[in-house]
């Protein structure tokens, strides 16, 4: 199949440092190429891929210091639209800006939603564009928007060899991701200290979270039992995760997927995760870790997960969360859409939204 992958421009594909969405797009693109598909990637110019790359910005916008990505994204989408007839499938990873531009091509488009869907800010878009084919990255992610047109759930997957199996493990607990209130690094610090184990934290600090870090987290870092090493990339993850006794995932929000969980599993490192969002879909208690609901339960889970054979954790990763499994799942969705092509001209975009709220839109869109 001829497939276009349309990535956000915030980060390169793959990202230089933090960037879960762009990392997943890279893994998917490479796996689709491996499976023999003709893939084109629309992304930043510093992206690296074995697919055909269409550079749509000079570099990833976040590290270039550009905060508002709307203009660059719209310019990219305009180019995709002009070249749309080259492809059997247009696979978007940019949330919603493409909806009105590609409405007449909805039959050959699908959008993977990578973010949280429990906030009402974006709910009206699903009423206004009911024909859009959506993919969730966990079943929990789609729960707040049951009216949306989901055609499947595809769990993330990563290359088998990217983080090699580390049979020995280590003697510290790990936290990796982003310093923010919903990720709860404070919980991770408390769990490690109460368990009597060292904690190593590898995390980025966004500008929006600097005050939280300085006021709430920095004071907790005093002492040799907590090491903050900052943001890391793919090259550092095998050592960081492979040498950990367990990964702490103490989230306090509806995490849509939680990529770091499967990164740890690839190394054979079990995960102690709070029962929010996708966690019950990703973690198998007693097989890949433990699911807890309090700090006390997390502390008690430390010796439990350390007793899980690391080979068992790795085998579960290989069975459920590889990039080729992810790619095959997407190909099945692509094939289900193939041949739908161009749809008839749509009705007024506000009709569905208005009808869902009992509004009378007669005469809307006319003047005079």
From TrEMBL:
Residues covered by the Glycosyl transferase family domain = 170-298
Keywords of the record: Transferase
User: Which Gene3D superfamilies does the record associate with it?
Assistant: Glycogen Phosphorylase B
Gene Ontology molecular-function annotations: glycosyltransferase activity
Ranges for the Glycosyltransferase subfamily 4-like N-terminal domain? 18-123
Tell me which InterPro entries the record gives: Glyco_trans_1, Glyco_trans_4-like_N
Entry-linked Pfam families = Glyco_transf_4, Glycos_transf_1
Q: Which SUPFAM superfamilies match?
A: UDP-Glycosyltransferase/glycogen phosphorylase (SSF53756)
Q: Which PANTHER family match?
A: BLL5217 PROTEIN, GLYCOSYLTRANSFERASE
Q: What is this protein called?
A: Glycosyltransferase involved in cell wall bisynthesis
